[in-house]
Design brief:
CATH superfamily of the largest domain: Aspartate/ornithine carbamoyltransferase
Shape: globular
Helix content: 40-55%
Structural class: alpha/beta
Strand content: 5-15%
Strand order of the largest sheet: 7-6-5-8-9
Bound molecules: phosphoric acid mono(formamide)ester, norvaline
Distance between the termini: 9 Å
Radius of gyration: 19 Å
Length: about 325
């Protein structure tokens, strides 16, 4: 059973086919095969979502399947039914699970105890669907039409500035290591990744697979991409005032963006808070590719769904 809980659930050798499939789905939207025909995929969400929810619902539908959205609070899991029983019961009904939650262990348990593929649609630890879609967005630009998508990413440098311990930062570290990209992260001390993430990174063979600095200008030097995310991730709301105070020096201003390579792209997984982690001027810059990132969630997730569905057989 193939799951997608973290970037390294795909090996480096599987990535060219995955990226090529995403490109094919994008180029042939509305005309391609429907490999989920006759299937229902449940989507269990414990957190808000715009992009992930809509792109998965549309994507499952476009692949011929039926998406079944389940707010965690509307099912018995929200009242304490165990993850084990939920995994076993849902496995009798549906062909796969897409899960957005807090504790990463929850997606691991659903995968371990159920008998259908599980896709991580964001946990506190990782957001792998986002990073693969982001990588597709960059690869399309750097590889050109028909070019080697995965090869085009190798050796490029990404600078992540802001909440450097968040799920999106963690996933970029894991993805960059898997794809052979360089990654530098800048943020305030004391907001590092959870020890759980460093342990996971080491288990995957990427111990110390990133450079961390408290100097945003150092991180963006020679960067091909400047990336940021919200300073207050879902579940961290009570830390809002402190996070804004310590992260304000790490805002992506036009001046900081200019310190990257002249042709560097600006990226943000969205939702953005203009005037906090990024200036409106940077969001509106011609080198800001934030809406292409959002669109590619659909195409990359369809490739992930189709690959997991095929691996199941
Ligand atoms: N980027 C992202 O995952 O957005 P949503 O929270 O809207 O799904
Ligand atoms: N780090 C953010 C990402 C939102 C898509 C969060 O977890 O809220």
């Amino acid at each position: 059973m193939k799951h997608f809980l973290k970037e390294t659930d795909f090996t480096a050798s599987e990535l060219p086919a995955l990226f090529a499939l995403a490109r094919e789905f994008k180029a042939n939207r509305g005309r391609h095969a429907r490999p989920l025909a006759g299937q229902t995929w449940a989507m269990i969400f414990s957190k808000s979502s715009t992009r992930t929810r809509v792109s998965f619902e549309v994507g499952i539908h476009e692949l011929g399947g039926n998406p079944l959205f389940l707010n965690k609070n509307d099912i018995q899991m929200g009242r304490g039914e165990t993850i084990a029983d939920t995994a076993r019961v849902l496995s009798r009904f549906v062909h796969g699970l897409v899960v957005r939650t807090f504790d990463h262990a929850e997606v691991e348990q659903l995968a371990a105890l159920g008998s259908v593929p599980v896709i991580n649609a964001l946990t506190d630890l990782l957001h792998p669907c986002q990073i693969f879609a982001d990588m597709l967005t960059l690869a399309e630009r750097w590889a050109g039409p028909g070019g080697d998508l995965v090869g085009a990413l190798r050796g490029r440098k990404i600078a992540f500035v802001g909440d450097r311990g968040c799920n999106v930062a963690n996933s970029w570290i894991m993805g960059a290591n898997l794809l052979g990209m360089k990654i530098a992260l800048a943020g305030p001390p004391g907001f590092d990744a959870a020890p759980e993430f460093d342990q996971l990174l080491a288990r995957e063979g990427y111990a110390k697979g990133y450079e961390f600095t408290t100097d945003a200008y150092q991180a963006v030097t020679d960067a091909d991409v400047v990336y940021t995310d919200v300073w207050v991730s879902m579940g961290k709301e009570e830390e809002t005032a402190e996070r804004i105070r310590v992260m304000t020096p790490f805002a992506v201003t036009p001046e900081l963006f200019r310190a990257a390579k002249p042709d560097a792209y600006f990226m943000h997984c969205l939702p953005a808070h203009a005037g906090q982690e990024v200036a409106q001027e940077v969001l509106d810059d011609p080198r800001s590719i934030i809406f292409d990132q959002a669109e590619n969630r659909l195409h990359m997730q369809k490739a992930i769904l189709a690959t997991l569905a095929a691996a199941k057989r």
